[in-house]
Amino acid sequence: MLINCLNRGVHTGLFVQTRNLHCVTTLAKKAVKKPGKGKKVEEDEVVEIVDLNSYIQRATAAFEKSTELHKKRLNELKAGTSNPTIFDKLKVGKENFKFTDVATTSMKGRNNLLVTVFDPKDTKSVISTILAAGLNLNPERIPNNVQQLKVALPPPTTETRKQSCKLLKDVFEEYKNSANKNSLGHIRAEVLKELKTIDKKNDSVKKVIQDLEKIHKDYTSKLQEALKQAEKSVLG
């Protein structure tokens, strides 16, 4: 049973469990104690305060995080091979060191990457790692500097642009509706599941569900707009 908590006053003698401030409704539950032999059944009423507004606040924060992660992934793909972080996930040598533990990468002009190896003895391993990564990139030693490598970036072609757009669409679908915990669809489903355990027929809960659907639609539009801009940037 849902009761408007603003009209209840003080619940003297009741156990009140508060989830959040700005109380909108309370969910009243009754817990029945089993009587001992020869004793009457006693009922203890437990009133649990449920802040329906908090569900919208939590969903909005999660949707916002999702759009930020989506935008970050799109930017990484737009940069393609010119992204200085392109080697960061690679493993170097037999010890499988993280690439970032043995070297750092930066841009050198518009068409080259500059890889600086921290220890000269790791230079050969870094070269082998980049060649084996399947990125179609060829690191070359800089004369008189055993710790630096220049990696020339190939110019984009029609085919590579199309492939990049496909990858952008895949990222969009992942953050729109997938099993990814940061996808808009997953977030929406989890919040709806919680709301429907309260009382989905109650007018207050219905209103919150309607608000959630509207916010979800708005953030989906934001994802679509970000994809559109990223594709435009890639295609030129």
TrEMBL record:
GO molecular function: ribosomal large subunit binding
InterPro entries registered for this protein in UniProt: Ribosome_recyc_fac, Ribosome_recyc_fac_dom, RRF_sf
Keyword Cytoplasm attached: no
Pfam families attached to this UniProt entry: RRF
Domain called Ribosome recycling factor: residue spans: 71-235
Family classification: Belongs to the RRF family.
Annotated function: Necessary for protein synthesis in mitochondria. Functions as a ribosome recycling factor in mitochondria.
Name of the protein in its database record: Ribosome-recycling factor, mitochondrial
Organism from which the protein derives: Lachancea lanzarotensis
Lineage, uppermost ranks: Eukaryota, Fungi, Dikarya, Ascomycota, Saccharomycotina
